[in-house]
Amino acid sequence: MVMLPGLEAAELPADAIEVGRIADAWGIKGWFKVLPHSADSEALFSSKRWFLMPSERGAKTFSGVAKITIAEAKIHSNTVVATARGVEDRTAAEALRGARIFISRGSFPAAEKDEYYWVDLIGLNVVNREGVDLGVVKELLATGAQTVLVMDFEQDGKVQERMIPFVSVYVDDVDLPGRRILVDWQADF
């Protein structure tokens, strides 16, 4: 296993969530630019331990899973920049280019009442008030006006796709422990 300055070999936590990737070096003092996967990058700021894996494509400057200790992360010009212990100069930061960033789900800040992390909604069963199974959430889409649940369901032996706006007028309850979302939506919509 090849390790770079500032990285230490690690095991990926069982609850690790991919939250972004390192785009490039930023400045000359070891800072790097991060491209978060979410518009709300609070998870990046909530944890001082990031787990890195090499990019799936392109050159690989390290292998395996590495842990990095973040010294500082901040918003700069609509993006996130960060620096880590042991990453002392631009060359060390450039070597991280393309690395995928994972954070333990347990490190995420607590969601407010009636707020949910998308990752927690994926895989939940969606059921309407009449008890009809409408499908399983496979992804969420941000449409600008609202977020939309995208789910798969089977009909006549074929996998179909259904979309339901994730807004309070249609969503009655989200039961994370029960892995279920109750909605006011008909199967034939």
What key attributes describe this structure?
189 residues; mainly beta; Elongation Factor Tu (Ef-tu), domain 3; SH3 type barrels; 2 domains; 6-stranded antiparallel β-barrel; 6-stranded mixed β-sheet; 3 helices; 13 strands
Question: What does this protein structure show overall?
Answer:
The chain is mainly beta. It folds into two domains: 7-107, Beta Barrel (Elongation Factor Tu (Ef-tu), domain 3); 118-183, PRC-barrel domain (SH3 type barrels, Roll). The chain has three helices and 13 strands; from the N terminus they run E-E-E-H-E-E-E-H-E-H-E-E-E-E-E-E. The longest helix has 5 residues, at 42-46.
Short description:
With 189 residues, this protein is mostly beta strands.
Measured distance between first and last alpha carbons: 52 Å
Structurally, the number of domains stands at 2
What percentage of amino acids are in beta strands? over 45%
The tally of strands reads 13
Largest sheet: 6 strands, antiparallel, barrel
Shape: elongated
Number of helices: 3
Give average pLDDT, whole number. 89
Q: How helix-rich are the residues, as a percent range?
A: under 10%
CATH superfamily of the largest domain: RimM
Specify the structural class. mainly beta
Order of helices and strands: EEEHEEEHEHEEEEEE
If you compute it from the alpha carbons, what radius of gyration comes out, rounded to the nearest whole angstrom?
A: 20 Å
Spans of at least 5 consecutive residues whose pLDDT stays below 50 are: none
- Top-tier CATH class of the largest domain: Mainly Beta
CATH architecture of the largest domain: Beta Barrel
Numbering strands along the chain, what is their spatial order in the largest sheet?
2-3-6-5-4-7
CATH topology assignment of the largest domain: Elongation Factor Tu (Ef-tu), domain 3
